[in-house]
Amino acid sequence: MLKMAVLLSGSGRTLDNFHQRIAEKTLAAQVEVVISNSADALGLEKARNYGYPAFHACGSQATNTILAGYEIDIICLAGYLKLYTPPPELEKAVINIHPSLIPMFCGDGYYGSVVHRAVKERGCMISGCTVHFANEVYDAGPIILQKCVPLAYDDSVDDIAARVFEAECLAFPEAINLVDDKGIDFFWQRLAR
Fold first, then answer.
1. Mean of the pLDDT values across residues 18-44?
2. Angle value at C-alpha 84, between 63 and 108, nearest 5 degrees
C-alpha cells in the first residue's frame, strides 16, 4: 500500500475519487496529506472533511517543507496547475494525470479545457488520458497507463471533457495500483530500454 500526498489547485474531484476508491478497498493507497497552491481551493475543504491533513503552500519549497513532516511514497498531482519540483528523495515518485493521449496535446500551456478545445478543433475521433510520472519537463516523464475514449462528430468541448474525466477516474487509481505492484523504478527503467 502506497502512502501518498495529493497536490491540487481546485475542486478536488480527483481527491473525491481517491477517497471513494480507498473506502471501497479498490485503491492500494492511503492519503497522508493534501496540499494546495490555492488557499481557497474547494479541495482543501473536502480534504479536511475527509479527515486528511490539509495545507495551503505557495511553491515547491513550501510544499516540500510540509511533506517533510509525513512519510510519503508517492506524490499525486490531482489537478495541480503549477510545475512542481519535489525533494530529491521523491524526484521519481511524482505522478500526474494529463487529459490527452500523450504525446498529443501536451506540454507547457496544455491543461484542462485548453486540451479539449484543441482536440475538438483538430477534429479528433478519440481522446483520452495519460497517467505518467512527472519530471522537470511538462508531460515528459514515463507513461504508466493510458485510456482512450471515443468521440462523436458533434461533441462539444464540455462533452469531451466529461468523457475524458470519466476515463481519468478509472485510470488514475489503476495506475497507482500498478505502481504499488511493480514499483516506481520499473516505469523509469522502461524509458531507458
1. 97
2. 150
111-122 average pLDDT score? 91
Asked whether 78 and 97 are in contact (CB, 8 A), the reply is: yes
The residue among 131, 127, 128, 115 whose CA lies nearest residue 172 is: 131
Query: What are the pLDDT digits (tens) for 45-60?
Result: 999 999 999 999 999 9
pLDDT score of 193 more than 70: no
Q: Stretch 136-154: mean pLDDT, rounded?
A: 92
Spatial distance between the Cα atoms of 89 and 146, rounded to a whole number of angstroms: 26
Average of per-residue pLDDT values in the chain: 94
Tell me how far apart the 2 most distant CA atoms of the chain are, in Å: 50
Type of residue at 9: S
Catalytic site positions: 98
- Determine the Cα angle at 125 with ends 121 and 130, to 5°: 90
With a cut of 70, say whether residue 111 has pLDDT above it.
yes
